[in-house]
Each structure stands twice: as structure tokens, then as C-alpha cells.
Specification:
- This protein is α+β, with helices and mostly antiparallel strands.
- The protein has five helices and three strands, in the order E-E-E-H-H-H-H-H.
- Strand 1 and strand 2 form a beta hairpin.
- The chain starts with 24 loop residues before the first strand and ends in a 5-residue tail after the last helix.
């Protein structure tokens, strides 16, 4: 976003009204496509005559940035005359749907599903021959 337009106003659909928190990652309609956005502030619309587009989706229910982090990025944006969108993009994970799906759905290993501990095994070798044997023919405990 350009410096002259660092913030955009969007309305919250009724189904998501109680779920919105500052710092959440959301999907918003922007021009002819859907973009990512971060909630910077919430205000009650009251009886406002201004029509705004609703947000499309809350990507993560848990905020990805705290209020302090957002405030810090806003201050840096103003001090260095850098777009807030540029700073946000540089401080977040790559915002790609396939990568976000991996982050949001925890993967479990076969050992974790079986209830076995997932800690790494530590071997102490007597000599080089034993080291090669363990690497070649690993023992499963």
C-alpha cells in the first residue's frame, strides 16, 4: 500500500463479530481480487452512513502480531516514511495459501500418533565400527 493509503476500513460480517481481534490475519476484497490483511484497530460502526465491504475470512483465530508489535511497526513506518504494508509483509511468514495450510494444520508423526515419545535418540559409540553399524542398521526401540 502507498504511504498515503496505509489503512483501509472493512466491516465485519455478523457471523464473525465476536471473533475479531487486533493482530489477526484476514482475507479482504481489494480491487478485483482477494488479499491478506491484518486487523490494526476495531471500531463500532454505529449509525455510520459510510458503506464498507465486509472481510471475507479470518485466516487465523489467534493474532499473529501483538498490539505492541503493530504499534512498533506503525511508528517505524511513520519515522522512516516506509509503507506499513511493506513492513508487515517483511515481518510475516510468506503469505501463500499452501504454506499457511501447513502452518495451521499440525502434522503428527507416526510415532506421535502411536503414543510413542518423539524425542530424538542419542547414541554414544565405542568406536567407528559401531557408529557405522548403527547408521547402517538402525535399531528401533
Amino acid at each position: 500500500m502507498p504511504l498515503s493509503l496505509p489503512f483501509l476500513d472493512y466491516s465485519v460480517p455478523e457471523k464473525d463479530e465476536g471473533k475479531i481481534k487486533i493482530g489477526q490475519l484476514i482475507k479482504i476484497p481489494f480491487r478485483n481480487k482477494e488479499e491478506f490483511g491484518v486487523i490494526l484497530d476495531t471500531k463500532s460502526s454505529g449509525d455510520s452512513n459510510i458503506k464498507t465491504k465486509p472481510i471475507n475470512k479470518i485466516v487465523f483465530t489467534k493474532p499473529i502480531l501483538s498490539k505492541a508489535q503493530l504499534s512498533f511497526l506503525v511508528d517505524i513506518s511513520e519515522f522512516y516514511h516506509v509503507s506499513l504494508g511493506f513492513l508487515l509483509k517483511g515481518n510475516l511468514l510468506p503469505l501463500q495459501i499452501r504454506k499457511l495450510a501447513k502452518v495451521s494444520s499440525p502434522r503428527r508423526t507416526a510415532a506421535a500418533r502411536a503414543g510413542k515419545p518423539t524425542k530424538p535418540l542419542v547414541y554414544i559409540h565405542k568406536d567407528e565400527a559401531e557408529k557405522i553399524e548403527i547408521i547402517t542398521f538402525p535399531r528401533i526401540f
